[in-house]
Amino acid sequence: MSSFLLEIITPDRIVFTDNVEMVVVPSSSGTLGILPKHVPLFALLSEGELKIKRQVEDFFLSIGGGFIEVTKNKVMILVTRAVKASELNEQEIIQARQKAQDALSQKPTGEALISAQVILRQSLIDLKVLRRRKKIITH
Amino acid sequence: MASERLIKRRIKSAKNIAQITKAMQMVAASKMKRAQIQAVSGRPYAEKIAEMVFKFVARIDQEKHPLLQINKEGKTLIILLSTNKGLCGGLNTNLLRTLIKWLTSSQLSESVYVTMGKKGEAFLVRSNRQLIADFSTNIPFTQNIPALTSLITEGYLKGEFKDVYLVYNNFISILRQDPTFKKILPISEFSLNNKEQSEEEKKTLDFLVEPSIDAILDTLLFHYLENQMRDAVRQAEASEHVARMFAMKNATDNAHEFIDILSLEYNKARQEKITYEIADIITARLGVET
């Protein structure tokens, strides 16, 4: 099967560069599946789960907001954050979620509110990604 | 001989200095490692996002977004990233000297400044330049970026600024940090240059945009500005720590060298004193015998 080059880069590191068969991304207006020879595209990405399909295996990443650019021979994804499912730790995420929920229950304002909301959203997505990985393993 | 005690005192103070500079060197080295990793690992993202912006802007109508317009009138805004503390060798001096040289050679009509880092601020105040904001007290500097971004964009949209430059020490390697001038606004200007090079990309004008060009530009341009500044701050920080580490290493080495020289002198003085004493005893004995 044909494939294309996918690059995922965050401000901290280059998360992924390899040839893949398909990538499914959460765009701001719904999930987008990208196969080889996709038309050139530029889209906003929202937080969510990103799925990569490769010959050997499928895997998932939890990503923050960002951009995707599809050109003739390459797909570039720039996001604020991208963590592979295998790098996620369930205990830590649940803790983070708990903390964010506690913080929110005290009705913070301004920056504290935003950061708590961001953490909460992130941990929910992380958990979703993690559960999906578990499902694949148990199958 | 009085100088013996004097030399001893000087040796002691040189030793103290060496101890302090050694400690500072260690601190700078450990900070440097972190800052260096951050600076280097953030670079691909900064480069790619710049590339993405230029490519995107080159393909669309320039009038689509207010941030893409070119202000004919207005001042030049220079964002100067220096350090808060000294003791980092010629890092700041070098940066400021390059800035002055650049200002005289490029003949800007009128320029205003925003600083991060007290050294740069002090210099601008001393040389009577127009300083509109100083963000030195907020540490780490990355905290200032949202405020700075809104300052720049608001000023630019109002037409107060004609162009915006970032001036900082770019971290190239441990042995090299170069003063750098990076133009971050107007964006359209460099994409025009890009257009000529990428004839092939021009042909693929039809590409999908989701959700809309406006929505993407809004997010992308702000994100781009913010990221370029963040990258600059990280580069400047890494440069600072590297420069400080080397400055402190040199200081320690010099202090040790100084201690060696002084010890030699001290021993000479001591030997001289003993020789004199022996000579004294011998002359006294000779005087008694005869």
Automatic annotation (TrEMBL), chain A:
GO CC terms in record: endomembrane system; plasma membrane; proton-transporting ATP synthase complex
Subcellular localization, as worded in the UniProt entry: Cell membrane; Endomembrane system
Listed Pfam families: ATP-synt_DE_N (PF02823)
InterPro entries cross-referenced by the UniProt entry: ATP_synth_F1_dsu/esu (IPR001469), ATP_synth_F1_dsu/esu_N (IPR020546), ATPsynth_dsu/esu_N (IPR036771)
Domain ATP synthase F1 complex delta/epsilon subunit N-terminal as annotated: residue spans: 6-82
GO molecular function per UniProt: ATP binding; proton-transporting ATP synthase activity, rotational mechanism
Membrane topology, record value: Peripheral membrane protein
Top-level taxonomic group: Bacteria
UniProtKB keywords: ATP synthesis, Cell membrane, CF(1), Hydrogen ion transport, Ion transport, Membrane, Transport
Xref: SUPFAM superfamilies: Epsilon subunit of F1F0-ATP synthase N-terminal domain
Gene3D superfamilies referenced in this protein's UniProt entry, alphabetically: F0F1 ATP synthase delta/epsilon subunit, N-terminal
Quaternary context: F-type ATPases have 2 components, CF(1) - the catalytic core - and CF(0) - the membrane proton channel. CF(1) has five subunits: alpha(3), beta(3), gamma(1), delta(1), epsilon(1). CF(0) has three main subunits: a, b and c.
Family: Belongs to the ATPase epsilon chain family.
Record function comment: Produces ATP from ADP in the presence of a proton gradient across the membrane.
Name of the protein in its database record: ATP synthase epsilon chain
Source organism (scientific name): Candidatus Gottesmanbacteria bacterium RIFCSPLOWO2_01_FULL_39_12b
Gene, per the UniProt record: atpC
Automatic annotation (TrEMBL), chain B:
Lineage of origin: Bacteria, Candidatus Gottesmaniibacteriota
Membrane-protein topology: Peripheral membrane protein
GO molecular function: ATP binding; proton-transporting ATP synthase activity, rotational mechanism
Originating gene: atpG
Name under which the protein is recorded: ATP synthase gamma chain
Keywords, alphabetical: ATP synthesis, Cell membrane, CF(1), Hydrogen ion transport, Ion transport, Membrane, Transport
Membrane-spanning segments: none
Source superkingdom: Bacteria
One matching Pfam family: ATP-synt
Annotated function: Produces ATP from ADP in the presence of a proton gradient across the membrane. The gamma chain is believed to be important in regulating ATPase activity and the flow of protons through the CF(0) complex.
The family this protein is said to belong to: Belongs to the ATPase gamma chain family.
Compartments where found: Cell membrane; Membrane
HAMAP family: ATP_synth_gamma_bact
Organism, scientific name: Candidatus Gottesmanbacteria bacterium RIFCSPLOWO2_01_FULL_39_12b
Subunit comment: F-type ATPases have 2 components, CF(1) - the catalytic core - and CF(0) - the membrane proton channel. CF(1) has five subunits: alpha(3), beta(3), gamma(1), delta(1), epsilon(1). CF(0) has three main subunits: a, b and c.
Chief localization: membrane
UniProt cross-references to Gene3D superfamilies, sorted A to Z: 3.40.1380.10, ATP synthase, gamma subunit, helix hairpin domain
SUPFAM superfamilies in alphabetical order: ATP synthase (F1-ATPase), gamma subunit
GO BP, sorted A to Z: proton motive force-driven plasma membrane ATP synthesis
Stored InterPro entries: ATP_synth_F1_ATPase_gsu, ATP_synth_F1_gsu
